[in-house]
Design brief:
two-stranded antiparallel sheet, mainly alpha, Lysozyme, 12 helices, 7% strand, 4 strands, 318 residues
Length: 318
Protein backbone atom coordinates (compact mmCIF):
# COMPACT_ATOMS: atom_id res chain seq x y z
CA UNK A 1 0.00 0.00 0.00
CA UNK A 2 2.96 2.21 -0.64
CA UNK A 3 5.19 4.01 1.79
CA UNK A 4 2.45 5.98 3.51
CA UNK A 5 1.47 2.93 5.57
CA UNK A 6 4.87 3.02 7.26
CA UNK A 7 4.29 6.50 8.71
CA UNK A 8 2.61 7.31 11.98
CA UNK A 9 -1.01 6.54 11.17
CA UNK A 10 -4.37 7.20 12.66
CA UNK A 11 -6.97 4.53 13.10
CA UNK A 12 -10.58 4.68 14.21
CA UNK A 13 -11.37 3.70 17.76
CA UNK A 14 -15.00 3.80 18.78
CA UNK A 15 -15.90 6.18 21.61
CA UNK A 16 -19.18 5.34 23.26
CA UNK A 17 -20.72 4.88 26.66
CA UNK A 18 -21.50 1.25 25.81
CA UNK A 19 -18.81 -1.40 25.18
CA UNK A 20 -17.52 -1.35 21.64
CA UNK A 21 -15.54 -4.06 19.94
CA UNK A 22 -12.41 -3.91 17.88
CA UNK A 23 -12.48 -3.70 14.13
CA UNK A 24 -13.17 -6.68 11.93
CA UNK A 25 -9.91 -7.66 10.23
CA UNK A 26 -9.73 -8.47 6.54
CA UNK A 27 -8.82 -11.98 5.53
CA UNK A 28 -5.49 -12.54 3.78
CA UNK A 29 -7.24 -12.44 0.43
CA UNK A 30 -8.63 -9.01 1.37
CA UNK A 31 -12.13 -10.36 0.76
CA UNK A 32 -14.75 -10.24 3.48
CA UNK A 33 -16.33 -13.68 3.52
CA UNK A 34 -19.01 -13.20 6.15
CA UNK A 35 -21.25 -10.34 7.20
CA UNK A 36 -21.43 -11.51 10.77
CA UNK A 37 -18.07 -12.16 12.35
CA UNK A 38 -16.98 -12.65 15.91
CA UNK A 39 -15.45 -9.44 17.14
CA UNK A 40 -13.37 -9.57 20.26
CA UNK A 41 -13.39 -6.26 22.12
CA UNK A 42 -10.10 -4.72 23.12
CA UNK A 43 -10.19 -2.96 26.42
CA UNK A 44 -7.62 -0.44 25.27
CA UNK A 45 -10.22 1.05 22.91
CA UNK A 46 -12.84 1.64 25.58
CA UNK A 47 -13.54 5.16 26.73
CA UNK A 48 -11.54 6.81 23.97
CA UNK A 49 -12.65 10.34 23.18
CA UNK A 50 -11.28 10.50 19.69
CA UNK A 51 -11.94 8.47 16.60
CA UNK A 52 -8.44 8.92 15.20
CA UNK A 53 -5.76 7.79 17.63
CA UNK A 54 -2.01 7.94 16.93
CA UNK A 55 -0.50 4.45 16.86
CA UNK A 56 2.78 2.89 15.80
CA UNK A 57 1.37 0.18 13.57
CA UNK A 58 -0.47 -0.18 10.27
CA UNK A 59 -4.09 1.02 10.12
CA UNK A 60 -6.85 -1.56 10.20
CA UNK A 61 -9.34 -1.71 7.38
CA UNK A 62 -12.38 -3.93 7.58
CA UNK A 63 -13.56 -3.33 4.02
CA UNK A 64 -11.39 -4.17 0.99
CA UNK A 65 -8.99 -1.40 0.03
CA UNK A 66 -7.92 -0.96 -3.60
CA UNK A 67 -5.43 1.75 -4.52
CA UNK A 68 -5.57 2.84 -8.17
CA UNK A 69 -5.77 5.96 -10.33
CA UNK A 70 -9.46 6.45 -9.65
CA UNK A 71 -8.87 6.41 -5.90
CA UNK A 72 -5.83 8.68 -6.29
CA UNK A 73 -7.99 11.16 -8.21
CA UNK A 74 -10.28 11.60 -5.19
CA UNK A 75 -7.38 11.75 -2.74
CA UNK A 76 -5.97 14.59 -4.84
CA UNK A 77 -9.37 16.29 -4.86
CA UNK A 78 -9.73 16.10 -1.09
CA UNK A 79 -6.21 17.41 -0.65
CA UNK A 80 -7.09 20.34 -2.90
CA UNK A 81 -10.54 21.78 -3.63
CA UNK A 82 -12.32 19.42 -1.23
CA UNK A 83 -9.91 19.92 1.67
CA UNK A 84 -11.97 22.46 3.63
CA UNK A 85 -15.17 20.45 3.23
CA UNK A 86 -13.64 17.15 4.33
CA UNK A 87 -11.90 18.81 7.29
CA UNK A 88 -15.29 20.06 8.46
CA UNK A 89 -16.87 16.62 8.01
CA UNK A 90 -14.03 14.87 9.83
CA UNK A 91 -14.62 17.25 12.75
CA UNK A 92 -18.32 16.37 12.64
CA UNK A 93 -17.55 12.65 12.54
CA UNK A 94 -16.33 12.78 16.15
CA UNK A 95 -19.90 13.61 17.14
CA UNK A 96 -21.69 10.91 15.18
CA UNK A 97 -19.28 8.03 14.59
CA UNK A 98 -19.41 6.69 18.17
CA UNK A 99 -23.14 6.00 17.77
CA UNK A 100 -22.92 4.94 14.12
CA UNK A 101 -20.01 2.55 14.54
CA UNK A 102 -21.47 1.01 17.68
CA UNK A 103 -24.69 0.27 15.77
CA UNK A 104 -22.67 -1.32 12.95
CA UNK A 105 -20.78 -3.39 15.51
CA UNK A 106 -24.04 -4.62 17.03
CA UNK A 107 -25.08 -5.87 13.59
CA UNK A 108 -21.74 -7.58 13.00
CA UNK A 109 -20.86 -5.28 10.11
CA UNK A 110 -17.55 -3.61 9.17
CA UNK A 111 -17.13 -0.38 11.10
CA UNK A 112 -15.64 1.34 8.05
CA UNK A 113 -19.11 1.32 6.47
CA UNK A 114 -19.69 4.41 8.63
CA UNK A 115 -17.81 6.40 5.98
CA UNK A 116 -20.69 5.80 3.57
CA UNK A 117 -22.65 8.34 5.62
CA UNK A 118 -19.89 10.89 4.91
CA UNK A 119 -20.14 10.23 1.17
CA UNK A 120 -23.94 10.22 1.20
CA UNK A 121 -24.74 13.28 3.29
CA UNK A 122 -21.67 14.77 4.95
CA UNK A 123 -23.29 13.54 8.21
CA UNK A 124 -26.07 16.09 7.88
CA UNK A 125 -29.65 15.26 8.96
CA UNK A 126 -30.97 17.98 6.65
CA UNK A 127 -29.33 16.65 3.49
CA UNK A 128 -31.84 16.16 0.65
CA UNK A 129 -30.89 14.83 -2.79
CA UNK A 130 -32.46 15.54 -6.17
CA UNK A 131 -34.17 12.14 -5.86
CA UNK A 132 -35.68 13.21 -2.51
CA UNK A 133 -33.38 10.96 -0.51
CA UNK A 134 -33.16 12.41 3.00
CA UNK A 135 -30.96 12.36 6.07
CA UNK A 136 -27.64 10.94 7.19
CA UNK A 137 -27.98 7.79 5.07
CA UNK A 138 -30.00 9.32 2.22
CA UNK A 139 -32.97 7.00 2.25
CA UNK A 140 -35.77 7.46 -0.25
CA UNK A 141 -39.18 7.07 1.39
CA UNK A 142 -40.10 3.56 0.13
CA UNK A 143 -36.78 2.05 1.26
CA UNK A 144 -36.93 3.89 4.59
CA UNK A 145 -40.38 2.50 5.31
CA UNK A 146 -39.32 -0.98 4.18
CA UNK A 147 -36.65 -0.89 6.88
CA UNK A 148 -38.93 0.35 9.61
CA UNK A 149 -38.46 4.12 9.57
CA UNK A 150 -41.46 6.38 10.13
CA UNK A 151 -41.87 9.06 7.46
CA UNK A 152 -44.97 11.23 7.76
CA UNK A 153 -46.17 14.77 8.39
CA UNK A 154 -44.82 15.07 11.94
CA UNK A 155 -41.74 12.84 12.02
CA UNK A 156 -39.06 11.76 9.51
CA UNK A 157 -36.79 9.16 11.09
CA UNK A 158 -34.42 9.32 8.15
CA UNK A 159 -33.09 12.37 10.03
CA UNK A 160 -32.58 10.39 13.26
CA UNK A 161 -28.92 9.35 13.47
CA UNK A 162 -29.61 6.26 15.60
CA UNK A 163 -32.73 4.89 13.91
CA UNK A 164 -31.50 5.63 10.39
CA UNK A 165 -28.17 3.95 11.12
CA UNK A 166 -29.91 0.76 12.26
CA UNK A 167 -31.99 0.82 9.07
CA UNK A 168 -28.88 1.43 6.93
CA UNK A 169 -27.03 -1.38 8.70
CA UNK A 170 -29.87 -3.81 7.99
CA UNK A 171 -30.06 -2.67 4.37
CA UNK A 172 -26.30 -2.95 3.82
CA UNK A 173 -26.29 -6.38 5.45
CA UNK A 174 -29.04 -7.54 3.10
CA UNK A 175 -27.19 -6.11 0.09
CA UNK A 176 -24.00 -7.93 1.07
CA UNK A 177 -25.90 -11.21 1.32
CA UNK A 178 -27.33 -10.46 -2.11
CA UNK A 179 -24.07 -9.54 -3.91
CA UNK A 180 -21.27 -11.04 -1.79
CA UNK A 181 -19.08 -7.94 -2.16
CA UNK A 182 -18.88 -4.75 -0.13
CA UNK A 183 -18.08 -2.75 -3.26
CA UNK A 184 -21.22 -4.05 -4.95
CA UNK A 185 -23.28 -3.74 -1.76
CA UNK A 186 -22.28 -0.08 -1.43
CA UNK A 187 -22.92 0.48 -5.13
CA UNK A 188 -26.40 -1.04 -4.81
CA UNK A 189 -27.02 1.19 -1.80
CA UNK A 190 -26.32 4.18 -4.01
CA UNK A 191 -27.95 3.13 -7.30
CA UNK A 192 -30.52 0.55 -6.24
CA UNK A 193 -30.16 -3.22 -6.10
CA UNK A 194 -32.44 -4.00 -9.05
CA UNK A 195 -30.54 -1.75 -11.43
CA UNK A 196 -27.26 -3.32 -10.35
CA UNK A 197 -28.66 -6.83 -10.80
CA UNK A 198 -29.63 -6.00 -14.37
CA UNK A 199 -26.14 -4.71 -15.17
CA UNK A 200 -24.47 -7.77 -13.63
CA UNK A 201 -26.74 -10.02 -15.69
CA UNK A 202 -26.16 -8.02 -18.87
CA UNK A 203 -22.36 -7.88 -18.65
CA UNK A 204 -21.86 -11.23 -16.87
CA UNK A 205 -19.43 -9.89 -14.29
CA UNK A 206 -19.60 -9.06 -10.61
CA UNK A 207 -16.26 -7.26 -10.57
CA UNK A 208 -17.01 -3.67 -9.53
CA UNK A 209 -14.00 -2.17 -11.31
CA UNK A 210 -14.98 -3.82 -14.60
CA UNK A 211 -18.71 -3.28 -14.22
CA UNK A 212 -18.35 0.40 -13.32
CA UNK A 213 -16.78 1.11 -16.70
CA UNK A 214 -19.70 -0.34 -18.62
CA UNK A 215 -22.42 1.60 -20.42
CA UNK A 216 -25.43 2.20 -18.22
CA UNK A 217 -23.47 2.25 -14.98
CA UNK A 218 -24.36 5.58 -13.25
CA UNK A 219 -21.57 8.16 -13.12
CA UNK A 220 -22.34 8.97 -9.49
CA UNK A 221 -21.91 5.31 -8.52
CA UNK A 222 -18.81 5.03 -10.72
CA UNK A 223 -17.18 7.61 -8.43
CA UNK A 224 -18.84 6.29 -5.27
CA UNK A 225 -16.41 3.50 -4.35
CA UNK A 226 -13.23 5.47 -5.22
CA UNK A 227 -14.55 8.36 -3.06
CA UNK A 228 -15.31 5.95 -0.23
CA UNK A 229 -11.86 4.35 -0.35
CA UNK A 230 -10.14 7.75 -0.57
CA UNK A 231 -12.11 8.99 2.45
CA UNK A 232 -11.23 5.89 4.49
CA UNK A 233 -7.53 6.14 3.61
CA UNK A 234 -7.36 9.81 4.57
CA UNK A 235 -9.40 9.27 7.75
CA UNK A 236 -6.97 6.61 8.96
CA UNK A 237 -3.99 8.91 8.40
CA UNK A 238 -5.28 12.51 8.32
CA UNK A 239 -2.03 14.32 9.15
CA UNK A 240 -0.15 12.32 6.56
CA UNK A 241 -2.55 13.60 3.90
CA UNK A 242 -2.38 17.20 5.10
CA UNK A 243 -5.44 17.26 7.38
CA UNK A 244 -3.78 18.86 10.39
CA UNK A 245 -6.59 21.16 11.58
CA UNK A 246 -9.36 18.70 12.39
CA UNK A 247 -11.08 19.99 15.54
CA UNK A 248 -13.14 17.23 17.16
CA UNK A 249 -16.77 18.04 17.88
CA UNK A 250 -17.98 16.61 21.17
CA UNK A 251 -20.26 13.57 20.84
CA UNK A 252 -23.87 14.16 21.80
CA UNK A 253 -24.49 13.55 25.50
CA UNK A 254 -28.12 12.74 26.16
CA UNK A 255 -30.69 10.65 27.96
CA UNK A 256 -33.70 8.97 26.39
CA UNK A 257 -37.16 10.00 27.58
CA UNK A 258 -40.58 8.79 26.44
CA UNK A 259 -43.21 11.51 26.14
CA UNK A 260 -46.94 10.78 25.81
CA UNK A 261 -49.00 11.80 22.80
CA UNK A 262 -50.24 15.36 22.96
CA UNK A 263 -47.03 16.71 24.51
CA UNK A 264 -46.15 20.27 23.51
CA UNK A 265 -42.42 19.76 23.14
CA UNK A 266 -41.39 23.40 23.00
CA UNK A 267 -43.45 24.15 26.10
CA UNK A 268 -41.67 21.28 27.82
CA UNK A 269 -38.31 22.62 26.65
CA UNK A 270 -39.10 26.05 28.15
CA UNK A 271 -40.22 24.42 31.40
CA UNK A 272 -36.93 22.52 31.57
CA UNK A 273 -34.87 25.66 30.98
CA UNK A 274 -33.39 24.10 27.85
CA UNK A 275 -32.49 25.94 24.67
CA UNK A 276 -34.81 25.09 21.78
CA UNK A 277 -31.81 24.87 19.44
CA UNK A 278 -30.23 22.14 21.57
CA UNK A 279 -33.45 20.13 21.65
CA UNK A 280 -33.85 20.34 17.86
CA UNK A 281 -30.20 19.34 17.42
CA UNK A 282 -30.81 16.18 19.45
CA UNK A 283 -34.15 15.44 17.76
CA UNK A 284 -33.88 16.50 14.10
CA UNK A 285 -36.41 13.87 13.02
CA UNK A 286 -39.31 15.57 14.84
CA UNK A 287 -40.76 17.98 12.29
CA UNK A 288 -43.35 19.65 14.51
CA UNK A 289 -43.17 21.08 18.01
CA UNK A 290 -45.47 18.46 19.46
CA UNK A 291 -46.33 14.77 19.54
CA UNK A 292 -49.77 14.04 18.03
CA UNK A 293 -52.46 12.92 20.49
CA UNK A 294 -53.09 9.64 18.68
CA UNK A 295 -49.49 8.53 19.39
CA UNK A 296 -49.30 6.57 22.65
CA UNK A 297 -45.72 7.66 23.39
CA UNK A 298 -42.57 8.63 21.53
CA UNK A 299 -38.89 8.37 22.35
CA UNK A 300 -37.01 11.69 22.46
CA UNK A 301 -33.53 12.76 23.52
CA UNK A 302 -32.82 15.33 26.19
CA UNK A 303 -29.43 16.45 27.57
CA UNK A 304 -28.10 14.52 30.53
CA UNK A 305 -29.34 15.83 33.85
CA UNK A 306 -32.73 17.02 32.57
CA UNK A 307 -34.82 13.89 33.12
CA UNK A 308 -36.25 14.98 36.48
CA UNK A 309 -37.47 18.25 34.92
CA UNK A 310 -39.04 16.36 32.02
CA UNK A 311 -40.85 14.03 34.43
CA UNK A 312 -42.08 17.03 36.42
CA UNK A 313 -43.46 18.67 33.26
CA UNK A 314 -45.34 15.53 32.18
CA UNK A 315 -46.83 15.02 35.66
CA UNK A 316 -47.89 18.64 35.86
CA UNK A 317 -49.23 19.19 32.35
CA UNK A 318 -50.35 15.84 30.94
Amino acid sequence: MKAFIMAILFSCSVATSAPVGSKVNLSKSSKVKKVRQKVRPKKSHYGKRYLYSPIDRKPKFDIPITYNKRVQKWINYYQGRGHRWLTKIFSRSYRYFPSIQYSLHQKGLPLDLAYIAIIESGLSPGAVSSANAVGYWQFIKPTAERYGLKVNWWVDERRDFYRSTLAAANYLGDLYKMFGSWYLAASAYNMGENRLKRLIKKYKTNDYWILSKKKGFPKETRDYIPKLIATVLIAKAPKLYGFKKVKPMKPHSYEVFHVPGGTDLFSMVNHMGLQKKKFVELNPSILKGFIPRYVKKYRIRIPKGYTARAINYVKTNM
